[in-house]
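Hi V.,

You were right to ask for the full record rather than a summary. Here it is.
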Amino acid sequence: MTDAFAPPPPPQEVTDEHRFPCDNCGADFRFSPEQNLLVCDHCGNNSEMVADGPWGGTAIKELDFQDAINNLLPLQEMEETRVSTCPNCAAQVEFDPNTHASECPFCATPVVTDTGTHRHIKPKGLLPFSLDEEAARDAMTEWLGKLWFAPNGLQEYARKGRKLEGIYVPYWTFDAETETDYTGQRGTVYYETRTVTRDGKTETERVQKIRWRSVSGRVARFFDDVLVMASHALPKRFTEALEPWDLAAMEPYRPEFLAGFRAEAYTVDLDEGFHDARAQMDRVIERDIKFDIGGDRQRISSADTRVWDVTFKHVLLPVWMAAYKYRGKSYRFVVNGRTGRVRGERPWSAWKIATAVVLGLIVAGGVGYLIAMNQ
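Predicted structure:
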């Protein structure tokens, strides 16, 4: 997908900034979540994270939304990376030059590596992995153990037969000032007593009624870090199940954090992402209006929202993932790389369900027989 707000890219070399050779043996370092260091699995050497360079500092810079939409972002905010594009789910994952054939980490479809380039806005922040693969696998195994009616073969394959892959998934965050003028009605509940006749008997009953009064007002809210998934590779039910994310712990982007991991390129453009963010904002504003109206019931007749000072960031969030095929269909596990929350797809075992139904009928029949005998 072409970024509508990106200027035509100038000729440039696409570099691999996420590889860090060990200064002892020359093998690639990887970022170790448990040690918060760059470690070399070949010789055991390690290196501290470097905070200087173009990604240094402690502040995470926000970018102006209108500048991006109007193609006015400075060129230094843009970059181009090599990606592998999945022909099935269209995920674009950064190319690993050491790998020449692979599977899509999102759907297990075979892909050809280095299938193109992706020009995009640079990430400004990320949440580093805090769980290593072993901890993520433990979380997944515990989750699998709670599944009812899953085929035994699938459980064994998913537990032991596949390596989890650490992937940084792209998100947009949006900040904005908002102010909303509204009109509506405040409802006050009251009760009236009335006499009714039922089956020849006269009774009194309380009837609830609502007295409505027209109201108007204004609410204001500053939205900070409204989070929007910037990819279609994972369904929303997956990504929403991994929340909440501890965004307060976000680090300024440094490529060292990606050493040994992969990163997905965003495929949701900035304007589409802001459309989703506005939908989230509108839901919060609606709650604000109802709270401002007060009373027992609320009706909103109109809401006119002004939005200004919109800023955004491209950020990366950590996910451990296993995609596998079972009887010709793809299934996925995803694990929040910070908290260990798990979400996954699973088939159902027909014979387990049938066995449970038969056993249930036998138990119900036995209970019915005992009741009949006691009577």
